[in-house]
Amino acid sequence: MDLELKDLKDAEVFNLMNDMVYITDLESHEILFANDAVHRFLGSPKNLLGMTCSVLTLGEERHCGRCPAETLGAMRETRCYNPLLKRFIYAKTRIISLGGKPVQLVVSFDVSNIEHEKQELATALQAQEVLVSSIRLLHETTDINHAYDRILKNIGEDLSADRTYTFILKKGLFYNTHEWCAQGIESRKEARCVVAPQLIKRWLPIFKENKCVVLEDISALRSTHPEEYDLLHAQNIRTYIAAPIHHHDKVAGFIGVDNPPLEKMKNIAPLLLSLAYYISARRVMLEHTAMLESMSYQDRMTGAGNRNAFIRTTEQLERSFSGHSIGIAYFDLNGLKEINDTHGHKYGDKAIIAFARLLHDTFPPEAIFRIGGDEFVVLCIDESEAHLKEKISHIKENLRKNSPFSVSIGVAWENKPKSIRALIEQADQRMYTEKESFHKFGK
Description:
The protein is of the alpha+beta class. The chain is built from 13 helices and 16 strands. The strands form three sheets. Strands 1, 2, 3, 4, 5 and 6 form a six-stranded mixed sheet that branches. Strands 9-8-7-12-11-10 form a six-stranded antiparallel sheet. It has a four-stranded antiparallel sheet with strand order 14-15-13-16, sandwiched between helices. A hairpin with a 4-residue loop joins strand 4 (75-82) and strand 5 (87-98).
């Protein structure tokens, strides 16, 4: 049955409702009646009579022209955002009779909380996806710099930000190591590549508590923290958030986001804190991996490459090296057993370390390998035979003048060798020949 009202006095019954109800003219779309709930919603006793319905639905002062022709009793639903009221409105519209004339009855509901919850849920789910993909990038890629670039891009696009970047603490200063910029936003990496801690001294206690610095409007800093305001304002930053990166429980840097929308800032902090944690964990893992790599391929006592490193290097040379000269020098300390027996192993270790230091003073560190207790090998790539022999002579002369021990040496050099292995065996054999001479003649 169609709803009929004799006059506007009958419409006052709608004042008993908590939902917003108003009646508009079908031709002029002017508001003929608005119940008390409408005025409460607007927060003022403003006289709405004569205004169009668009003020309450779309926030527009004039009729929007979107209402289609309706028939008596027809029902229509509308869901929209009113920018004037900054609220989400859900309205049910029906044509009724008022004093025998068709008019539009609108019942409106403020659904802003529901819409905000839906948006927050969608944003949180999207942030979760960004976090998962970022963690996958951190753990799967071998190029950590590429991973950081991809992660910053994902964060920036997800948050609709202007810039995202990382600053890492090195030697007392924060260096801008990675950056992503939205289209049309100028990079500031070179301009702000270094930040002194005193410029962000207010942030550091917050970072130490593993919390984000959140600035919804930097203009509030103008009077309270002018240096911080000047730093951010000079970079066209209006809203800002930063999350700390820790390393061994100390602040080691931070992730920054320039100008994220206010409606997304609630969900940014958990995302950035989680991401910063995994970046910190990845850094520790890389540190441990490097330490294990060092232990696997480096002789701890002398700093030279060990036998594993020597095998790996020679195999790589055998597979891929061509077109260059290679020189091999084998060294074996003479009489180390007698030195250990006479003076003790600590004295023998000192002799090994002293000889290794001499090699490091003469050859690049990546060329030196300790392949046994008293045996060293040097691999010289693209070095002339004359230059190699000159270095060997320098070592012999230094040992003769300054060391209580001598060294047997075997050298082999070849331009564009066909077999690295054969060249190594040649140098090894020459060293053993000299070693036999030492044992036979004592020199």
